[in-house]
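User: Run a structure prediction on this.
Assistant: Running it now.
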Amino acid sequence: MAFDGIVIANIIHELNTTILNGRIYKIYQPEPDELNLIIKVPGGNYRLLLSASATLPLLYLSSENKNNPMTAPAFCMLLRKHIGNGRIIRIEQPGFERIVVFHIEHLNEMGDLCRKKLIIEIMGKHSNIIFCDEQDSIIDSIKRIGAQTSSVREVLPGRHYELPPSQDKISPLDVTKDYFEQNMLTKPLNLCKMIYTSLTGFSPVAANEICDRAGLDGDISTGMLRQDADTEAWHIANGAEQLWEKLSEVVEQIRQEEFQPGIYYDEEDTPIEFSSICLTMYSDMEWRQNPSISAVLQEYYAAKNNVTRIRQKSSDLRRVVSTAIERTAKKYDLQCSQLKDTEKRDKYKVYGELIHTYGYGIEPEAKSFQALNYYTNEEITIPLDPTLTPMENSRKYFARYNKLKRTFEALTEQVAQTRQELEHLQSIQTALDITLEETDLADIKRELMEYGYIRFKGQSKKKGKLPKSSPLHYISSDGFHMYVGKNNYQNEELTFKTANGGDLWFHAKQIPGSHVIVKTEGNQEIPDRTYEEAARLAAYYSAARTSTKVDIDYTRRSNLKKTPGGAPGFVVYHTNYSMTIEPDIRGIQEAEG
């Protein structure tokens, strides 16, 4: 969900139960557009994060301790001077906007009691943190906005603070049924846009949720709700009434501060959306609730930032691997086509032998002759070059046979090598897809360098050790330790160094993916449930993770051998069992640390 007015209302509710009447103990400015306030309350301290970043404006209680500059910026020093040790006496959200106003009481240089306002506006690229006195005169702001930047509203010291233009919106807490019918439903818009352009603090996600609860498509126009039910689809009859009813339910939930903060995760355990209310339109996803909206925001954005950061850092490696796969696949197809052409070689050998055997009966300048193929007892017609003698035709066919034979032998080896190279690159591509940490990327980059896909820049192959990452670690429902390699080097070490001969090994059948090792702790008997959970891990951490079913091979570690001359992590085995499983790892416990 967008950082909308509903989330802001949830945050203010949480702040009122945690830091209200607390004292501002310390003020930091770790980034040019970010503040950290340490709030001291009876029983402990809270760290309040206020970010006016144009790309990711935020406001929540954070547990993260950021590094601060050696010299505090001017805006930070100003706040320390005025509201250092000040007390937060009120926190409000004017007009249900994406704005939070902190009313702070403090003593000035003369010892007189004064009040100030610290205002954070969470409005995308227009986000700002503004410091005002009690009469709303701007003392300063973290971003100064002059007339050349905005002709609508200046944010400069000495100017009077004004709320951003409301754009003819009304607070959802003030909307009535008459206003809904006469002012909102009369707009020539689709239902979703009608809601979020009429009500302050309502994002498109919240508007779509209202439509979903009412059983309406958010893309249909308001005009359809105003027409006669006799001439329109069945759901139009009570559509307007249903929409008002569901909107009222959400507004009443906000008014009563009955928030339900949580995050929605897809099948790949990727956070898709966060919300302060239940989103029925994501009923097919896993919803993980948390009583703290701050904890939800910190978890959501940490996961999103990590995924985004890894994607950005791996983009160059992905491009290298993708290009190499494309080039290698073309080479493999060409070699297979050339290899298929060599299938004629035995035919030319037979032609040469038959001409050599029956050549005495061939008439001069004959273009062909028929002979009995003593290999198949069938009569065949052999083409001849009339300008050559029978023996010369025989030698010509033998020469063609020998050339194709040499080509076949060379191509057979080349096709095998190219296929191994293609499988190796596909395994690296799969490793990139499941990469979670920067150290994983370091392993993959090292592998690409060692196999010549990336040049070593300014370092020897023997020098400069790169950081080492660790395999994933899970605990089965029966208490057995399960390890998952995230790249080829980890697969190699996990299988041939970490595992012993009695441990179990799982891998997606003939598909690039992770090695999964189940430690049997001295050849203990493994329950069926652990077999299934290990197989689910092998299916999920493979190239087939988006499939509904995946075939998994499993065997004892002692049955594995390294592929001779193969890339790291490639093995051969001849004794194994198989099962078909869903690539779903929900419910499998990940070990801490």
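Residues 228-237, 459-464 have pLDDT under 50 and may be disordered.
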